[in-house]
Amino acid sequence: MKSAELTWMIYIFILVYFLLGSIGIYFINRRKDPQDARKSWIKHVTYFLIINILFFSIFINPVVFRLVTVLIIFVGFCELFVLFRKSGFNHKKTFIQAVCILAMFSCGFYHFSGMDKGLILFTFFLLSIFDGFSQVTGQLWGRRKLFPKVSPDKTVEGFIGGAITALLSGFLFKDFISAPPLYALLLAAWIVVFAFIGDSAKSFYKRKYKVKDFNNLIPGNGGFLDRFDSLIAGGAGIALLKLLLNFHLG
Questions:
Q1: pLDDT at 76
Q2: What is the pTM of this model?
Q3: Buried/exposed code over 145-154 (b: 16+ C-beta within 10 A; e: otherwise)
Q4: Is residue 176 within 8 Å of residue 6, measured between CB atoms?
Q5: 17, 26, 74, 164: which is deepest, by most CB within 10 A?
Q6: Which residues of 21-51 are buried (b: 16+ CB within 10 A; e: fewer)?
């Protein structure tokens, strides 16, 4: 199958997954009060718009995605500093550690933005699925808290649901990166692990400063780092893997 056909197939699957997620959110929101349900729908629709912006920035021209990458990195650092300033410059050690971690991830993420378009789309696709289905399955069936002190909303069931869906999707789209089944599954697992690390690091930083959100720049979301933490870390993970193994995919 040609690359263009695979690309559009990925987009079709994104639409299908979004529809499935919408159905899940519909049932979740039936248990919520109208105001919370409205916020949930705003977050869901905004996420869909962001997914489309990122997808087409990758698809249309790699330079466009690289510019988006720079914007995400810049705003991410700004969010760390603004929260640090609002706290009265407390927890300096935590702030410095967060800046160093984000700097390392950002270097990898920037390098990732210049890699093969097929690999970028594959990674972005799996990250979107992992993020989306972790939230939906967690809200539908989540019972056991994963890290209650760091991220009280995340559950074991949500993580498992998101991870399984991402792994299965990696297997289904192995041809997009010309990889054998086992290699595609291992790569998908690697992406999920780094996405989880990025999300956990962001959550720890926010809890240290006792805030739920960085800001309201993105309607329904908690800021750029809340929305793009998995993408930054997942992209950095792929860049690290390339550096360590000097692998070639796509």
A1: 95
A2: 0.91
A3: ebeeebbeeb
A4: yes
A5: 17
A6: beebbeebbeeeeeeebeebeebbeebbebb
